[in-house]
């Protein structure tokens, strides 16, 4: 199972807003860049707003970053859009055979490794900022 595409779309939204600071960042305009429906953009933007990453004012078209891109990490974005639940990046199959010694014990053997792998990924995301991503985009 993949991490939800909401994560990549959220980074795309925020990078657009960051690189278009003087423009109007409407859901229609953003949707055109992302290649999706404006409703999807509004839903993800709502999540980003609740997490304090963007500001959208009623009656005023467009969104802006709530704080500088240098202060927004990919981990914050990942958590804002609920890309995966805590400790659930990797899933263990649900019905191994209780008759089999491997089936009885496989979850206990691999879950700690899965948790360490998810933590390692989240540690990397914590070290990368939106500004670093935006700086790699031609504007």
From TrEMBL:
Classification via Gene3D superfamilies: Winged helix-like DNA-binding domain superfamily/Winged helix DNA-binding domain (1.10.10.10)
Extent of the signal sequence: none
GO cellular component: cytosol
GO MF: DNA-binding transcription factor activity
A Pfam family: Rrf2
Name of the protein in its database record: Rrf2 family transcriptional regulator
Organism ancestry: Bacteria, Bacillati, Bacillota, Bacilli, Bacillales
């Amino acid at each position: 199972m993949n991490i939800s595409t909401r994560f990549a779309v959220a980074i795309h939204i925020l990078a657009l807003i960051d690189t278009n600071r003087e423009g109007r960042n409407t859901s229609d305009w953003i949707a055109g860049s992302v290649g999706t429906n404006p409703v999807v953009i509004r839903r993800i933007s709502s999540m980003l707003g609740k997490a304090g990453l963007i500001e959208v004012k009623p009656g005023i078209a467009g969104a802006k970053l709530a704080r500088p891109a240098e202060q927004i990490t990919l981990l914050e974005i990942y958590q804002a859009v609920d890309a995966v639940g805590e400790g659930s990046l990797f899933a263990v199959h649900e019905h191994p055979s209780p008759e089999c010694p491997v089936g009885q014990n496989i979850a206990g053997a691999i879950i700690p490794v899965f948790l360490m792998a998810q933590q390692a990924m989240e540690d990397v995301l914590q070290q990368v900022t939106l500004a670093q991503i935006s700086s790699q985009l031609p504007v």
